[in-house]
């Protein structure tokens, strides 16, 4: 009050206004500072959220990276983006369209490579006669009073699968060599790799002096309704080395048949698998050293290609016939539609035939291509799967 009442001192109203202005300015400064701090903080959070959405380190970024990962051996297909759609979204669209097929092909390839019976050691010994063909049990004896040779075919064990269904339909032919005209046969045991026959066969009116000059020859075959029966293995035993005074029982390992695959020639063919088109292209290129089937010492070869699914014949195609040629060049390609999910149950049968006008065409040799065939065939099948869209060529020995 003394200050205010002194001469020249400011009035009360002036001081009040000054205080109000001072407080207002202080509040304004504080608020401005707070706003600037808030803007910086909020802006940083917003910026971080944008970066998180767009970077591979975020959850979405990792899922996108996994989704667009291509299988081994595959390649990305670049397409123009749809108007109004970002390239990133276009990649997502392509990924959804192809991911299921790619995953299926990849898993199927791995499964085939793991399940296929052809190991590296098998491939190294391809064509060797060390293959296990199973064994057969039989008995033989001679009745001197009735001049009769008795042969009993009992059973076989561990026979190889000759059919594409993974089994065989075995039966046995019995010869007394060198006589090939007169033979006896057992019944066919359907889908059985360990068949029991227990069948007895009699060769009556056979003097003992002639019996001991013969060779008992047993041939085990796989019955085929549609084509020539496939030999499985054989056993031969000279009867002069057997005590025929009583029935003798033998277990013998089957050996490759004397008309083995090497004498039938070879065929060069290529396989090309296209997973996106669900197709396999078989190119029959050429053959060499084919077996002569005609009297003139030559053959008239052509090639049949059968597509099999499980135990059904789906489609057949064939080449032209090459007249009087044991080393023909075909260079003919055939395309077969095979969905990826059916590859495991698919077999391609290649049959080289000899054309005959006057009688039934003769089979020169066969090749079974699948994931469960012989070592050489399995290797070709695996190479085809491992190298999609590329023709894979390989020579194959023709088998009976």
Automatic annotation (TrEMBL):
SUPFAM superfamilies to which the protein is assigned, alphabetical: C2 domain (Calcium/lipid-binding domain, CaLB)
Entry's transmembrane regions: 14-37
Molecular-function annotations in GO: calcium ion binding; calcium-dependent phospholipid binding; calmodulin binding; clathrin binding; phosphatidylserine binding; SNARE binding
GO CC terms of this entry: axon; lysosomal membrane; peroxisomal membrane; phagocytic vesicle membrane; presynaptic membrane; synaptic vesicle membrane
Pfam family, one: C2
Bias-annotated ranges (Basic and acidic residues): 87-97
Principal location: membrane
Domain C2: 132-252, 263-396
Keyword Nucleus attached: no
Compartment annotation: Cytoplasmic vesicle, Phagosome membrane; Cytoplasmic vesicle, Secretory vesicle, Synaptic vesicle membrane; Lysosome membrane; Peroxisome membrane
InterPro entries named among the record's database cross-references: C2_dom, C2_domain_sf, C2A_Synaptotagmin-7, C2B_Synaptotagmin-7, Synaptotagmin
Record's keyword annotation contains Glycosyltransferase: no
UniProt xrefs under PROSITE patterns: C2 (PS50004)
Membrane topology: Single-pass membrane protein
Gene3D superfamilies: C2 domain (2.60.40.150)
Subunit-structure text: Homodimer. Can also form heterodimers with SYT6, SYT9 and SYT10. Interacts with calmodulin (CALM1, CALM2 or CALM3). Interacts with CD63; required for localization to lysosomes. Interacts with APP.
Record's protein name: Synaptotagmin-7
